[in-house]
Amino acid sequence: MNNIVVGMGEALWDVLPEGKKLGGAPANFAYHVSQFGLDSRVVSTVGNDKLGAEILENFRKKGLNGLVETVPYPTGTVQVTLDAEGVPCYDIKEGVAWDNMPYTPSLDDLARKTRAVCFGSLAQRSIVSRETINRFLDVMPDGDGQLKIFDINLRQNFYTKEVLCQSMNKCNILKINDEELVTVSRLFGYPGIDLQDKCWILIGKYNLKMLILTCGVNGSYVFTPGHVYFQETPKVEVADTVGAGDSFTAAFVSSVLRGMPIADAHRLAVYTSAYVCTQNGAMPLLPRELTEWKD
Prior knowledge:
UDP-N-acetylmuramoyl-L-alanine:D-glutamate ligase
């Protein structure tokens, strides 16, 4: 069994008032998977420019392995501005490198060796990257031990019902937060029932192995056919919440792949996410009590 775990999609810079920070869920996910001792890869695309070179150098310094192509489009950026109340507003630039991920022979080879992949909806806003992600999912081996995680990650208006349906049909684990679940329920036409019933509908309709529902300070759930697990969110002093959800997914997937029971994997994911919230940035070094977790 191949054990490569892939984070696939956008690689970009968040340009904040105080400067730029490396962003993109796939890299956050892959980096934290590597901290749990698994062989991970980030798959994305950067431009042949200074920002692209800086992303590759950041990955190198973090020891993050990748299959990152360079294409003749600008490296992705997200302009982050703060309104009068200090609430951030995001402008995710379009027509950038990660909108143009090519499907290459190297990517085809990686797909055949991949045991788990995490992908989202944002990188599927363009036809080129959407087709590449779907080809990768189709080429990946099928089997009980193969995980295809759709971390839905709705951003601005960069999603359609068609893309969400297609992705849910191709994944076997869906990760969604409570706000996204409300949006998806409106799109799919069942808004008037409680959150748990919506989750059971999605599990049944898309034949999912698991559905992970995160509800911020109100805890998180893991649904499997016939059973639901719940964990409270630990109370911590929050530095920022950037990348916390990606670290949750990485800890959970890494633990499940290593054979940890779902309840224990869920607990580790919750504590990992809480720790990341106490640190600045999406990719802090995790303490050994998390990466060498003994429940």
